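Database export, one record per block. Field names are fixed; values are copied verbatim from the stored entry.
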Amino acid sequence: MRRTGAEVVWEMLSREDVEVVFGIPGGAIMHTYHPRQEYGVHHVLMRHEQAAAHAADGYARISGKVGVAMATSGPGATNLVTGIATAMIDSVPMVCITGQVPTPLIGSDAFQETDITGVTLPITKHNYLVTDVAELADVIHEAFYVARTGRPGPVLIDLPKDVQQAETDFVPPTDGITLPGYRPREEGDPELVQRAAEMVNKAERPVILAGHGVLMAGAMDVLRRFVEKIQTPVSLTLLGKGGFPESHPLALGMMGMHGEAYANRAIQEADLLLAFGMRFDDRVTGTLETYAPSARKVHIDLDPAELNKIVPVDVAIEGDLCHVLSQMLPLVDSRKRTSWLKQIEGWRGETAVRDVLRRPENGRLLAPQVIHSIYEQTGGGAVLVTDVGQHQMWAAQYYPLDAPCSLVTSGGLGTMGFGLPAAIGAQVARPEREVWAIVGDGGFQMTLHELATAVQEQLPIRIAVCNNGCLGMVRQWQEFFYEERYESTQLLNPDFVKLAEAYGVPGWRVTGPDQLEGAIAEARAQTGPVLIEFRVAQDGEEGNVYPMVPSGAALHEMIRRPVEAGTTA
């Protein structure tokens, strides 16, 4: 079975169950593209390599498979970098294949040469420069194994042009892979699991912090059984949304900088924190010196590097969350914590006034109202893909999720421009699901050229542009912390409806609450991509995201929404 390196690439992608690749061809990867049609792998032609990486990311998050992006050398490869970094910090399995100049020219500053393995070393789980075509099949097999096992992440394969052209005797790799020093652990240490269970049994005010690891481990069912047995409230990280149903009586909603005030307060008052598959990110903890001061802490994570990295804990358990929770479940006592839950419910009641934002009576169109209207019409069953900014936080607050793998967002890196291309990947992964891309006017303009990709692929993505005429989150910080000096945040925007129509995408503009229901219903009836521009409020209390934990403040020191009668939301 003689194969060129290019043919080995597609042969191996097929064997790794890859159905789609997102990318852009170019000089140094053109030879690899040549035999693609013979292998039946679909290729989605993106308009920018960064968008290709984001699309592969969105595909991976929704499908549970490894996303694949492909680009040429030099600028094609470096354009992938932001998408790779996004996937790395959010633990998304992805394989990127880049072309490279021929091996004799490496290091000579040849045309479109970049040391992409050197560039991406800090932002990949592993990367490879393949110089021998005989090793290529094994490298690809190993790359997919590394990307999807343990804590998932991106892997890059750099493929010189002469290696793509060279021939080799193709021998399919065996399934067994042994990598020295790389042995992801599934079961938790029994002694540590026992200690953690004893802490749960003694706690009076426990809180569970559920992160992205719940979804990656497929631990949704065992987490629910665990929660209901010990009657402990659950707060979610942004990326953890969908890991525990938000309609459940024990759900506290999102924690952190823009999380629910009562969730943050419960964390600060807890006597035990159970951190499941989360990183204690600074957006979650506030200042560390005052974080959950009375709580003992248990941290379960697959990545040992995360244990005791940011928050010192009493019990740190390395292992797959699904396995560890299954170990712990029979060891914890079934009990009620009526007093603790009643106290939290009282705090929850303090924020009920926030509901007014869902249906304001002053005639202004607000972004929370847009999100809530989409939630009502979709019944909470859509896949929500967001860009980054105020709309991202409002989407998390006003679109509660019960189903797993229903939110795609850039959490750790906060990448503006992520929304539309990631929505393309999500829609390709799940063509039967209704996908909404919730974007701001600032981030949308960073990757709006991917409207052409959505049209070419005939993807029925619903794009909601929350247009407040500014870089909203930056403006909010300038209002709160920079003496209202709005430096370089006002945007002169195009006519988004005409722009969409130029790409062949039907578009509508909504300027008032009375137009919401009809516009969303009409968008949902379309069979291809559609865009709605929502002209939402920029200024005043209605234009800011509340609550907000200022940088450097304690988690409970939230800026709350001022409302009538001295109450807060």
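Remark 1: The chain has a mean pLDDT of 95.
Remark 2: The chain has 23 helices and 20 strands.
End of record.
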